[in-house]
Amino acid sequence: MVSTSAHAPNSPAPHGIPHHRVAAIGAGPANLSLAALAGDVLPHDVVLFDRRPAHAWHPGLMHPGVRLQTSWIKDLTTLVDPRNRLSFLNYLVTTGRVYAFLNAQFDAIPRLEYDRYLSWAAEQLTSIRYGVDIRDVRFAGAGEGFVLYDEDGPVATSDHLVVGTGTRPHVPDCFRDRSIPGVLLAEEIGEHFETCRCAPYEPAVVVGGGQTGAEAVLALLSYGLREIRWIGRRPWFAPLDDSPPANDFFRPAYLRHFQALPGQVRERYVAEQILTSDGVSMSTLQELYQANYETWLSEGRSPVMMLPGRDVVEAGHQDDLVVLRCRRAAGGHERHTARHVVLATGRRPAPLPLAPDVLDLEPGEEPYVEADYSLRWKHADRHKVFVQNRAQPSHGVADPNLSLLSVRSAAILNSLLEREAFPIRDEQVQTLWA
Ligand SMILES: Cc1cc2nc3c(=O)[nH]c(=O)nc-3n(C[C@H](O)[C@H](O)[C@H](O)COP(=O)(O)OP(=O)(O)OC[C@H]3O[C@@H](n4cnc5c(N)ncnc54)[C@H](O)[C@@H]3O)c2cc1C
After folding, report:
1. What are the boundaries of the region Disordered (predicted)?
2. Among 28, 307, 321, 356, which is 20 to 30 Å from 254 by CA?
3. Is the CB of 28 under 6 A from ligand 1?
């Protein structure tokens, strides 16, 4: 393993707080995969901290019927360690649901089932400390490693860090500076519509043409709203490209090819390939179009108006309504007023909880991510800082997704152990990308 500090694993550090070989911040799928794989190769050496009081995966975005966009075979462990006890298959078998699950014949599994699986896996792991919000990480010096702080002070020290703090909703500039009554995030829909008494024909707008936007429209329909406008920037509400060649971008062989490309080419490829990751599932689009058509059959009026090719550039408030000004791709502007405006405008990586002097970056500068997902910094030879789910520019379009979770965790563990504890095999490749 990469050289460690003078502390024995999990022994009290000088401050009287526990010391860990590896402190992983966040216990979402990314670090759960790391912990699951570490069970056999680094037992007791990887500890996860999560600010939540208990496991939860994107709460607020679990509307009835929503589906995973990824095969369940791409679970926390299977692609690199199919015999791992925390595989999805073992979850199905040990919870007694495997036959019912198979007979349900899902093309795509419910997101709720994936959440249950994550929760089951988290319960098996004894290495998660919930309710610890890591506000800051400071470097105590070579040989000493990192000190992790929550709001009350230091909580642990570690030789290495794995940052798996995920993403948070992106709010466009025109909504950012002030709070406008009636504007909410997609993950607040349940809370908002379960408590507000809304009349069906109160106008609502969903901003954002991706999967979360489509699911938000369906959720508003299920809350009885009948005057919904769906605004997206792209010229059409584009489906996810789930074809075999698109899925080639989600395999280790392509990852290796991508990492060797010049930066400008990588940037262009990520932009060109984005619909293999950020498009709307075909089944969701069909459900939405069919619901719109069937409501017209039964109620004489389609409840959803699709408005692609629009960019919301101004937001305000007038007479108890939200007022939006949109720039149209076809030219000119238009105005929309609504009682409720749901923002489904994408997500961005949460800020790194590291003291600015640790990485010694210029303001706004992004750290360089090495092939093993560690950040380039001056003490990287003794103290690694790995990042999960924030290396799309260097590692490709798959990085923010669940598809290669276990492959990324395996690469991190192989690097920590300085040996190929998890061989990453992808040899049957029929595509020559360049
Ligand atoms: C609704 C939704 C559905 C998705 N569905 C799919 C899908 O079907 N297929 C797919 O490939 N991808 C999907 N994604 C994309 C992606 O795979 C998920 O966002 C996934 O959860 C990312 O995992 P993560 O562990 O990196 O981050 P997260 O799941 O966001 O987990 C991060 C964790 O870190 C904790 N945390 C953050 N900051 C701190 C801190 N300072 N201290 C302590 N804890 C902290 C949080 O509480 C959280 O538990 C989806 C995304 C969303 C939003």
Report:
1. 1-20
2. 28
3. yes
| Rounded Cα distance, 344 and 304, in Å | 16
The atom of ligand 1 lying closest to the CA of 29 is 25
Burial of 411 (0-12, 13-18, 19+ CB in 10 A): buried
Tell me if domain 19-166+350-417 and domain 170-240+279-343 are identical in fold.
Answer: yes
Q: Whose alpha carbon is nearest atom 22 of ligand 1?
A: 166
Among 47, 68, 167, say which to mutate for ligand 1: greatest number of ligand atoms within 8 Å of CB.
167
**CATH number attached to the domain at 19-166+350-417:** 3.50.50.60
Q: Is the CB of 58 under 6 A from ligand 1?
A: yes
CB atoms under 10 Å from CB of 267, counted, come to 13
Q: Is 208 in the pocket of ligand 1 (CB under 6 A)?
A: no
Domain residue ranges in the chain: 19-166+350-417, 170-240+279-343
pLDDT in tens, 36-79: 999 999 999 999 999 999 999 999 999 999 999 999 999 999 99
**CATH class name, domain 170-240+279-343:** alpha beta
